[in-house]
From TrEMBL:
InterPro entries: GntR_C, TF_FadR/GntR_C, Tscrpt_reg_HTH_GntR, WH-like_DNA-bd_sf, WH_DNA-bd_sf. The keyword Repressor does not apply. It comes from the Bacteria. The keyword Ubl conjugation does not apply. One of its GO terms (molecular function) is DNA binding. Coiled coil: none annotated. Keywords: DNA-binding, Transcription, Transcription regulation. Residues 16-83 form the HTH gntR-type domain. PROSITE patterns: HTH_GNTR. This is GntR family transcriptional regulator. It comes from Rhodosalinus halophilus.
Length: 237
């Protein structure tokens, strides 16, 4: 069978723009939990998905490898890392530290317009969780959290939080790996209850209440991963 020829090489400036586009799309997919741990990202499939040649995809993947969001295997395939228990616990400990801090500070800065937008976002997420499929709900969940964090922290902390989400997005996906049509009950309830508590805390300017709801939300996600029976590295090969 004859292979499909590569698209003609683009000039460096255009390729850099395409690479940035692919990078941002992959970054958002990781943050939103589109890939489960161990998922191998096929270069040609991604190039076809994004309508680009393979070069921008490879370059974007290597940027994410440098950020520890992806991993190069001995056979040169690139996959989503499989974290061990200690790494997962540390990841969530760091998230709780930074995200609760951002939530406390957001309570001092959230204005009525931002609050109304956040409530609308949660209503969208509530509706998405009633429909079959989970990708939309996970995407909206990420947008909900980052709407709070952007208001409550600087670009320095925000970039660290984003990096931690790239590593933890697949962990959120892991309990859903068997083709679940909806979020598990504990995660569904947390997304509704704890998100509403965050909104209420922001409305009152109560930073401690916002931080407590964020911590509870993260604890539910971590507990769901612990209980899902995800294979260890040695079992996944």
């Amino acid at each position: 069978m004859t292979e499909t020829p590569e698209a003609p090489e683009r000039d460096p400036a255009e390729r850099a723009t395409l690479q940035e586009h692919v990078y941002r799309k992959l970054r958002e997919a990781l943050i939103s939990g589109c890939y489960e741990p161990g998922h191998v990202l096929q270069v040609r499939a991604l190039a076809e998905q994004f309508g680009v040649s393979t070069m921008p995809v490879r370059e974007a993947q290597m940027r994410l490898v440098a950020e520890r969001a992806l991993q190069v295997l001995p056979n040169r395939a690139i996959r989503v890392p499989i974290l061990d228990d200690a790494e997962t616990e540390e990841l969530y400990a760091l998230r709780m530290l930074l995200e609760t801090r951002a939530g406390r500070q957001a309570a001092e800065r959230f204005d009525p317009a931002a609050l109304a937008a956040l409530e609308a976002l949660q209503s969208e997420m509530d509706a998405a969780m009633e429909r079959p499929g989970i990708d939309e709900a996970l995407h909206l969940n990420a947008h909900f959290h980052f709407a709070i964090y952007r208001a409550g922290t600087t670009s320095v902390s925000l970039s660290v939080i984003e990096s931690l989400w790239m590593m933890s997005g697949p962990i959120i996906r892991a309990p859903l790996r068997r083709g679940a049509a909806r979020l598990p009950g504990s995660m569904d309830k947390s997304a509704r209850t704890n998100h509403r508590l965050m909104i209420d805390g922001l409305r009152r300017g109560d930073g401690d209440a916002v931080a407590q709801a964020i911590e509870a939300d993260l604890a539910v996600a971590l507990a769901a991963f612990r209980g899902c029976g995800w294979p260890a590295e040695s079992d996944a090969s």
